[in-house]
Write a structure and sequence with these properties.
By secondary structure, this protein is α/β, with parallel strands linked by helices. The protein is about 40% helix and about 20% strand. The strands form two sheets. A nine-stranded mixed beta sheet has the order 6-5-1-9-10-11-12-13-14. Strands 3-8-7-2-4 form a five-stranded mixed beta sheet.
Length: about 325
């Protein structure tokens, strides 16, 4: 196989996180359900954004977080996602490129605004999220960078993006290009509700297009319609070459064929915010995999990255993950 320019190309929902502090009475005054994630429309997004306090704006989205983690480890990554030619679209583009992830998808010149997740943090550290999906769901086959996909060891697909039919076409196109170039395809299931909506389609993807699966325990059980984790693990072996299944404080289980690796969770002083734990687990795992590490080491790298991300607010690393991994002798 030819040398790849990129370790991983991620495809996902390009979302800007806008994080601001708020008091309890602000939530009550604006009818917000504390601790929940609510999908909102454009008018609601604009109105809420206008009355929020000073906010920190940073690019987010599940696959975007994974790619940022990969870059922090020293990996070479690119990202494909749809933004609008507006202020938040510029924020997303700047942030991705600034962390070392190539983001060259052409912005939309019309239509919905760039997606944003308006996050209000109350004094008790609870996060109340209001998400406007906007432009990101308009990603289609024409946005797939064929050269980048063919030149990446792994193409990483974000399950959250699977709702729009044109995004499904984009996934299948990217997978065909990757496999045509002798590369691998990875999928993250993203959310149990996402699995419930697309179970049959996800199974077809696994059978026909996916080599590496990422899922947490709830997602994997939802996929195979069982409450028994061991039964879900037994089932997934038949669908893809490698499956990495995270289990929060229980660590993770990585299976490949008849081989099973049980990985302990990495130590963390205090869990502050679990947002992005699965995203960063994928960062570490894929970095190890594209460096030729054995699957157990890939799992330990994933656990280390997840531990760093849950130790603070936000889903982007606050310290260099490469430094942490070197200290633990993992790279």
């Amino acid at each position: 196989m030819a040398t790849a320019r990129f370790d991983v190309v991620g495809i996902g929902n390009a979302i800007v996180d806008v994080i601001a502090h708020a008091e309890e009475d602000f939530l009550a005054a604006h009818g917000l359900v504390k601790g929940a994630m609510t999908l909102i429309d454009a008018a609601r997004a604009e109105a809420l954004y206008a009355v929020m306090g000073p906010g920190l704006e940073m690019s987010g989205g599940s696959a975007g977080n994974t790619m940022a983690g990969l870059a922090s480890l020293g990996g070479a990554g690119a990202y494909i996602g749809k933004v609008r030619d507006d202020q938040l679209g510029d924020v997303f583009r700047h942030d991705m490129n600034a962390v070392g992830v190539r983001f060259a998808t052409a912005p939309a010149r019309s239509g919905p605004a760039t997606a944003r997740c308006l996050i209000l943090v109350t004094p008790d550290a609870q996060r109340t999220m209001n998400t406007y999906l906007g432009a990101c769901v308009d990603l289609g086959p024409e946005d797939i960078d064929e050269a980048a996909i063919a030149d990446a060891q792994v193409t990483y697909l974000e399950g959250y993006l699977y709702d729009p039919p044109r995004a499904q076409e984009a996934f299948r196109k990217a997978a065909a290009i990757a496999h045509g170039a002798g590369r691998r395809v990875a999928l993250t299931l993203s959310d149990p509700f996402c699995v419930d909506r697309h179970r049959a389609a996800f199974r077809a993807l696994l059978e026909d297009h996916v080599d590496i699966l990422f899922a947490n325990e709830a997602e994997l059980c939802a996929m195979f319609e069982t409450a028994d984790f061991d039964a879900a693990v037994a089932a997934v072996r038949r669908f893809c070459d490698v499956a990495a299944c995270t289990r929060s404080e229980k660590g993770s289980v990585v299976v490949a064929g008849e081989h099973t690796h049980v990985i302990a969770a990495a130590e963390v002083g205090r869990v502050v915010d679990t947002t992005g734990a699965g995203d960063l687990y994928a960062s570490g795992f894929l970095f190890g995999l594209t460096r030729g590490r054995d699957l157990a080491t890939c799992g330990r790298l994933g656990s280390l990255c997840a531990a760093e991300i849950i130790s603070h607010v936000g889903a982007r690393p606050e310290v260099g993950l490469a430094t942490l991994a070197k200290e633990k002798g993992l790279i």
